[in-house]
Amino acid sequence: MMVQAIVLFIVGLVLICLGGDRLVDAAVAIAKKLGIPQIVVGATIVSLGTTLPEILVSTTAAFYGSAAIAAGNAFGSIICNTALIAGLTQTIRPSRKVEFASIAWRSGFFFGVLILMNVYGYVTGAFNRPAGVILLLLFVVYAWLNIRRASAEGGDEAQDESGAEVSLVKQLIVLAVCAALLYVGANLLVDNGILIAEAIGVPERVIAVTFIALGTSLPELVTSVMSLVKGYGNVGLGNVIGANILNMLLVIGIPSAVAGIPLEASTVTVDMPLACLVMAVLLVPILVRRKSSRLQGIALLGIYTVYCVVSFI
Q1: Average of pLDDT values for 74-100?
Q2: I need a labelling partner for 176 at 20 to 30 A (CA). Which of 27, 75, 122, 185 fits?
Q3: Of 178, 43, 16, nearest to 102 (Cα)?
Q4: Which domains are delineated in the chain?
Q5: How remote is the C-alpha of 270 from its chain's centroid?
Q6: Which is it for the CA torsion 82, 85, 91, 95, positive or negative?
Q7: Residues 233 and 92 sit within 8 Å (Cβ to Cβ)
Q8: Is 50 exceeded by the pLDDT of residue 223?
Q9: 76 near 271, Cβ under 8 Å?
Q10: What does the pLDDT read at residue 240?
């Protein structure tokens, strides 16, 4: 039974990785076909595509009553996206030319929402339905801000000439198939993650903030690595920031609005403050110096290593 659970857990990770990667490609192709500015594509559609695994896992977990996975996955993914993925990419190739205005307002939005969520979670011990509805409304505001600021951030740039050759119907079919892969993968990940946690006596939250968070962050990892390979490191950096915002607004917002999420003390006292810390380590030097350094990446990787070790201990 244990071997079967591990195999199915791995199958779930593979399905999520494949589905998330292809979904992003299809979303970008459709956006180019319809003439949507690339900055809006990166900050919303690509980030939404790479965050879909977290959304599906958390929503599924909430319906199953596994609140520790729903909350732990969201903040564990933020920590993983920032400390591991951004840490890795900044260590390999630091960002030298950063679009300050684009990152500045998204950074302010992220920290403002996270601090308010941390205070609310500390006071109430849960994200109830009203809190979930507010987070979903904030997602609408975030999407509107992206559209509103698109022209100032390069929205009038020329579109990819290959967009004219893209088959809209074909890409829509790819989107549907990838969504199905993500749904199946998310179910396998949650079901077998719970079984593995119970079998080895590890709390659900630890599984959520490590293995499941890493598994659902694979699309962000694939996107960031491919951005480096193609010489567009800032695309990966922007995707991490956008994905982290969506982790708060949708990965927490949807299950909270549906069923409410009771929070473990460790989520409020450890995971949420640490998510704020690693984003500060990543973003504050960039906002001050207009570029990142390899030292930031090494520091983030060190923080993530310590976090994983302490979580298991």
Answers
A1: 85
A2: 75
A3: 43
A4: 37-156+203-312 (1.20.1420.30)
A5: 18
A6: negative
A7: no
A8: yes
A9: yes
A10: 86
DSSP per residue over the chain, as a string? -HHHHHHHHHHHHHHHHHHHHHHHHHHHHHHHHTT--HHHIIIIIIHHHHHHHHHHHHHHHHHTT-HHHHHHHHHHHHHIIIIIIIHHHHHHS--SS--HHHHHHHHHHHHHHHHHHHHHHHHHSEE-HHHHHHHHHHHHHHHHHHHHTTTTTTTTSPPPGGGGG--HHHHHHHHHHHHHHHHHHHHHHHHHHHHHHHHHT--HHHHIIIIIHHHHTHHHHHHHHHHHHTT-HHHHHHHHHHHHHHIIIIIIHHHHHHT-EE--HHIIIIIHHHHHHHHHHHHHHHHHHSS--HHHHHHHHHHHHHHHHHHH-
pLDDT at residue 293 tops 50: yes
pLDDT of residue 155 exceeding 60, the answer is no
Q: Give the pLDDT of residue 161.
A: 46
pLDDT at 22 (0 to 100): 78
Tokens of 219: 């699309």
Distant-in-sequence, close-in-space partners of 169: CB < 8 Å, separation ≥ 6: none
Q: What is the pLDDT of residue 159?
A: 46
In one-letter notation, the amino acid at residue 275 is: A
Q: Write out pLDDT tens, residues 253-288.
A: 988 988 888 888 888 999 999 999 999 999 999 888
Tell me the C-alpha distance between 91 and 295, whole Å. 7
What is this structure's pTM? 0.78
How far, in Å, CA of 237 to CA of 243, rounded? 10
Q: What is the pLDDT of residues 119-129, one digit of tens each?
A: 999 999 999 99
